[in-house]
Amino acid sequence: MATDVRDVEVKLDDNVLAALPEGGKVVSVRPSGMSDYCNTYRIQVKLPGGGSKVFFQKEAAGEEGRELMEAAFTSESTTYEFIPEHVPRPITMGTYKSRPDTHFFLADFIDMVEDDIPDPDAYMTAVAALHNRSMGNCPTGQFGFPVNTRFGDLEQDNSWTGTWEEYWTRQMKDFLDKEDAAHGGELHEELERLRPLFFEKVLPRYLGPLESEGRSVTPCLIHADLWPGNVKYMNDGENVCIYDACAMWGHNEVDLGVFRNPRYPLGKAYLKEYWKHVPISEPEEDADSRNSLYMLRNQILLSVLYPHDTKLREMQVFVSSMRLLVDRVQDEEAAQSNPQQSPHL
């Protein structure tokens, strides 16, 4: 057990100290980064043999806080299992001895370069390593995760499911329900028109072929929140650190949706780099549409998290993406029923 030698009135909780190096002395605790959903700290410990080590801690209160810490620990632990060179080592999660309603997650602290977005090679080498190493290693062989994880503080239903189309359809229905609730049930006429077409036409069209005519989707571990805020260069300026996963076992291409989102300065160069390491799922000709489909998840959840940012919905950021997919499928259907008619572009 470590000891807290700081000259402060409120010291680290005993259960946190028990998880730190035996005989270590806590010499510094200060806020680390920004989070809307929990408190974060950087803990410096002087080691008994000389030198020091730094740790990262999250804390949150109540049952929601416990679930948030469990989601973080399980996501980071599973991701670390496959790419330990890119993920801060998770140590433990637990509950404060002094405050039984407060819960924590503890990991190694990694110094990172805050301002630079890693280039496509560094960024996608780490992502591809996660997918390639975990492919086919899901403990159940199904789609889901042992716990419900969090995008921000939004719960993601990860109930184990046998087919990818069923899993993703359930998630999209849940996400759109959350988006409605975040906006107070305010009717969005265009979204209401598109929603049934999206579920009746778009999802079967682009997910069904992945699991038909002898094809199948092999679950791999996906991070599910690979925006640039969660992928940084380590201090060497060459290797990247990936953190804050809301992990699930799913179709690897889900992780590529964020790279299409115009909200982030990423784009085609990152996708091209990824495909150097991982083959495109069949049917390959649907890859671009699947990428748009998976981008929708990120756009919808951002609209849930930030309902007062009107451009995320009212300027139809995700509604326009949904319309593009619906139009694409309807044009394809029209072309098949009337081969003489050129599809709308």
TrEMBL record:
Give the organism the record lists.
Trichocladium antarcticum
Output this protein's name. Answer: protein-ribulosamine 3-kinase
Query: GO molecular-function annotation terms?
Result: protein-ribulosamine 3-kinase activity
Entry's EC annotation: 2.7.1.172
Q: Which InterPro entries match?
A: Fructo-/Ketosamine-3-kinase, Kinase-like_dom_sf
Q: Which reaction does it catalyse?
A: N(6)-D-ribulosyl-L-lysyl-[protein] + ATP = N(6)-(3-O-phospho-D-ribulosyl)-L-lysyl-[protein] + ADP + H(+)
